[in-house]
């Protein structure tokens, strides 16, 4: 393999709630699994942590790695869009989003940005590829298994050994897939959005990350809706 290959995934029971993350690193003919958890977190934070911790291992072991190419596979559009597109605008605006609000998960974004910047400074090339979650891709499925175990605080044995002895053939990489649009849809292909109620004010959000940034740490109500009728019903139930 001419690249370090990384698979990563996050899991969270509730949003926020107990969560976990899992990563697989493949380099120099070896496989190393990583994992961890947090009792109060979000799925996005776990997705980001999975990537960051794997890249941090690459940075720490750069002198031992025989290639300067890294190929990251993740099912998180949020991570890929964030690190390859949105982060440049956030930094220019002093870590504010387009709405002039503090960027959600800013602490981890800054850590991830630092690790990525150091790797690039040391001549590493990082390729980001999207994989569809729960679609039978061995690396993604194993990372999900690790992440879920840590989210439940269950024991799971993390592999660290020869690639030839690993549970799947690491030389077979997932097919390239286009990065999905961030436009949120329900399983039946209906567009949905989020409503939040903070200090008596109703706000409409296109994505969960926007809604989360509004309600996190505040007395608030929030709900995912898929039609104007449903939205009106929710507002009525909130007494607004």
Q: What does this 3D model show about the protein?
A:
By secondary structure, the protein is α+β, with helices and mostly antiparallel strands. It folds into two domains: 4-165, Nucleotidyltransferase, domain 5 (2-Layer Sandwich); 193-237, no CATH class. The chain contains six helices and nine strands. Strands 5-4-1-2-3-6 form a six-stranded mixed β-sheet. It has a three-stranded antiparallel β-sheet with strand order 8-7-9, sandwiched between helices.
Q: What is this structure, in a nutshell?
A:
The protein is α+β, with helices and mostly antiparallel strands. The chain contains 6 helices and 9 strands. The protein has helices at 43-60, 77-92, 106-121, 138-151, 208-215, 228-237, and strands at 4-12, 17-27, 30-41, 69-74, 125-130, 160-162, 193-198, 201-205, 220-225.
Tags for this entry?
Nucleotidyltransferase, domain 5, 3-stranded antiparallel sheet, 6-stranded mixed sheet, globular, alpha+beta, 240 residues
Quickly name the level 1 CATH class of the largest domain: Alpha Beta
How would you name the CATH homologous superfamily of the largest domain? Ribonuclease H-like superfamily/Ribonuclease H
CATH architecture of the largest domain: 2-Layer Sandwich
* Radius of gyration over C-alpha positions, nearest whole angstrom: 19 Å
Number of DSSP strands? 9
What order do the SSEs take from the amino end to the carboxyl end, as H and E? EEEHEHHEHEEEHEH
Oligomer: single chain
How does the overall form come out from the CA principal axes? globular
- By DSSP (H or I, 4+ residues per run), the number of helices equals 6
Largest pleated sheet: 6 strands, mixed
- Based on secondary structure, the structural category is alpha+beta
C-alpha termini separation: 59 Å
The residue fraction in helices comes out at 25-40%
CATH topology of the largest domain: Nucleotidyltransferase, domain 5
Please, how many domains?
Answer: 2
